[in-house]
Amino acid sequence: MTLQKILITGELVLHERAAEVQEINGNVCDLVADMFETMDAAPGVGLAATQIGVGLRIFVFSYSFQDREIRGVAINPTLALSALSDEELDEDADAEGCLSIPGERFPLKRADNVTLTATDLEGVEFQIEAQGWLARIFQHEFDHLEGILFADRLVKPHKRLMKKAIKENGWGKVGSSWLPGKDYLEP
């Protein structure tokens, strides 16, 4: 396992749709092990392969709820979403962040319920029905595989504030990354 640099918004792979995994082999298994190590060190609750520069449809996740940990890998996932609620955006409960936009958190409306269908490392298809925070994690990571960052989904005034933060940090261009456990690395 190798700790990987996490790419920051502006890197092309973060803004393109990832390719389907054609074969689950030793390289994919090694990639997933690196992804878990990097996610845990960040620390994060999810990490897409695109975030470490690999344009494949893979994400890992780890979520603890009521003394139960849900941890896994989703290869070539699909996601079915419930409708968005009509409730007003909650600044705290709907706050979301991203390892590819480190340190920034803004509220974002997400579906309350999702069904994730994917393949695991053994090539077995599985399905998870999720709600709440786990549903948010799945939507966030799935978006990465579509080339969408949570910043792309923000609405005013949060979208304007995010653009300002990206500009002030010198992000939004090729060459920015950071290594978990270290300070932000200059391009």
What report would you give on this structure?
By secondary structure, the protein is an alpha+beta fold. The chain has helices at residues 26-41, 132-145, 150-153, 158-168; strands spanning 6-7, 46-48, 58-65, 68-81, 95-98, 101-107, 113-119, 125-131, 177-178, 184-185. It has one domain: Peptide deformylase (Peptide Deformylase, Alpha-Beta Complex). A five-stranded antiparallel sheet has the order 2-3-4-7-8, with helices on both faces. The mean pLDDT is 94.
Summarize this structure briefly.
By secondary structure, the protein is α+β, with helices and mostly antiparallel strands. It is built from four helices and ten strands; from the N terminus they run βαβββββββαααββ. Strand 5 and strand 6 (101-107) form a beta hairpin.
Give the topology.
Layout: E1 6-7, H1 26-41, E2 46-48, E3 58-65, E4 68-81, E5 95-98, E6 101-107, E7 113-119, E8 125-131, H2 132-145, H3 150-153, H4 158-168, E9 177-178, E10 184-185
Antiparallel strand pairs: 1-9, 2-3, 3-4, 4-7, 5-6, 7-8, 9-10
